[in-house]
Write a structure and sequence with these properties.
Layout: H1 3-14, H2 18-28, H3 36-43, H4 56-71, H5 88-98, H6 103-112, H7 119-125, H8 139-154
Helix pairs in contact: 1-8, 2-3, 2-4, 4-5, 6-8
Length: 156
């Protein structure tokens, strides 16, 4: 899925302003350079003037910042390095951690979106890429997860 779409979905889901997105990225790394103008450019549609593609680094920082914002920082553990490459599986994992979703919650989110997922399918999404039962998360799966999570968070 395009990083810009994921960023738009998260922003809508949590009703965040541009400055709040910048603050989320800085929670993950205070030295990370991101400003409101860049965020606005990421949120534009592809055919609008001023559109910029959202890099993996920006999305990774925003997702990590979301985890810190919702769950708090654990000072007893050294901070994990920010991922260089973001896949749909990584987005799914980070959202699961941020919202503290268990398997039952994940199944309910998918069901709310009208896209039920079996237990083996769900566990395959969270395996390591080299594992024999690993399954790559497709765009449609992530889109439906974001849709279900949005309805859960916004209560609509």
């Amino acid at each position: 899925m395009i990083n810009n779409d994921v960023l738009r979905s998260i922003r809508y889901m949590l009703d965040l302003g541009d400055q709040h997105v910048v603050e989320l990225a800085r929670l993950a790394d205070p030295a990370f350079a991101l400003d409101k103008d860049e965020v606005r450019a990421f949120l534009l549609k592809e055919d609008e003037p001023g559109y910029q593609p959202c890099s993996d680094a920006v999305l990774a920082h925003v997702l990590d910042g979301l985890i810190v914002h919702l769950r708090g920082r654990d000072d007893s553990v050294a901070p994990r390095p920010v991922e260089k490459r973001i896949s749909n599986n990584v987005v799914l994992k980070k959202l699961r951690v941020a919202f503290e979703l268990k398997d039952v919650d994940m199944h309910q989110v998918f069901a709310d979106a009208g896209f039920p997922v079996s237990k083996p399918e769900l566990s395959a999404l969270f395996r390591q890429p080299g594992h024999k039962n690993y399954r790559a998360c497709g765009d449609q799966l992530l889109r439906n997860f974001l849709k279900g999570l949005t309805s859960r968070v916004r209560g609509s």
